[in-house]
Amino acid sequence: MAHRRIKRTFASARVTLAMIVAMFALTVWVLRDLAVLVGYSILLAYALLPAITAVERIRDPRGRRLPRSVVAAIVMAFVMAVFVSAIVLAIPRLGVELAHLAASTPVVFAKIVSDLRSFGVERQLSPWLDPALASLQDEAPRILQHVGGTVAHGAAGALGQLLSFALLPLLSFYLLAESDAVFVSVMRLAPEEARPEITRLGSAVGRSLQRYVRGQAIVCAVTATAVGAGLAIAQHPAALVLALLAGLAELLPYLGFSVTALAIGIAGWSVSPFEAWFGLAIYVALNWTIGTFIAPRVLGRQLRMHPFVVTVSVLAGAKVLGPGGALLALPVVAGLQAIIGALATVPAEGLDSTASQRVP
């Protein structure tokens, strides 16, 4: 009799949980911009959690610890100060390099066309190649103008979105300073019979996200440092911009690599074809080394995904939520892996010890 009651409770909790997941997915779809903002705040909170834990261990002369809210405020203020200082120091240099890259784009295009014409003459392909190059050269001003307008429009839209993302530090602060209160408040929205299961699955997702954020931050920092040093030693143009791009590209598997490689090639071609190929060789070699020897060790087994799953996840995230969804795709898949693993490891008979738990 007790066994049947446990099974009924277990089935009811799973059905309720499935309904909650469906409602959550619908809410994310309707409020996509808000979902991306909340997702970023959660990732930032997990990224700062080790610093919060380290500062909490510090005691005053009387042996007392600082309140969690004070610790979160100190860490968040320090991070914001570092971020603002980095922007103030980097913007002039970034502006110079971006201006150089933008100014050299027409020159690079003309040089590519000239090289292709020389190639056609050497290979006796001019009768077929020259008309296509002429047409491309005629359309080049319109294409460049269209690209410039698209970039300017995107920059204006991004500037508008920055106002909403100004709330990101505040949301992360709430998650760090009052995580228990936030969790209790959110759990009160769920049916009582589903709360124990949600609590257990939430703990698994939290551990997975914490490992992902830490590992991904290390991989991005190592990639940016290595690529920046390699390009700077080779005296590649726009080395700082390309190093930052390479670090951020690690958040977007495959797509990020392609964008960074294209940017390195264009910047290098403004000097010479050799510079372009040499810069690409440096980036490919460093990316392969980090991806083969460093990233697997740092990220661990939690994110062991087949490239097909990674690619589809990133494309699906970009399709549903735009660029923000592409960045959040892998954390979401990591969380789903944790949920599936937690569901698979707990049989229905083990619910009797969980069903009695209640969240206030």
Overview of this structure, please?
The protein is an all-alpha fold. It contains 12 helices and no strands. Residues 152-159 and 347-360 have low confidence and may be disordered. It has one domain.
Question: Quick summary of this structure?
Answer:
The chain has twelve helices and no strands. By secondary structure, the chain is an all-alpha fold. It has one domain (12-25, 32-57, 66-346).
What topology does this entry show?
Elements: H1 2-30, H2 32-56, H3 68-122, H4 126-165, H5 168-177, H6 179-187, H7 195-233, H8 239-249, H9 255-269, H10 273-299, H11 307-321, H12 323-345
- Fraction in beta strands: under 5%
> Count of helices?
12
Radius of gyration: 26 Å
Task: Based on Cα principal axes, name the global outline.
Answer: elongated
The CA-CA distance between the termini, in Å, is 29 Å
> How many structural domains can be distinguished in the coordinates?
1
- The overall pLDDT, averaged over residues, is 76
Helix content estimate = over 70%
Tags for this model:
elongated, 360 residues, 12 helices
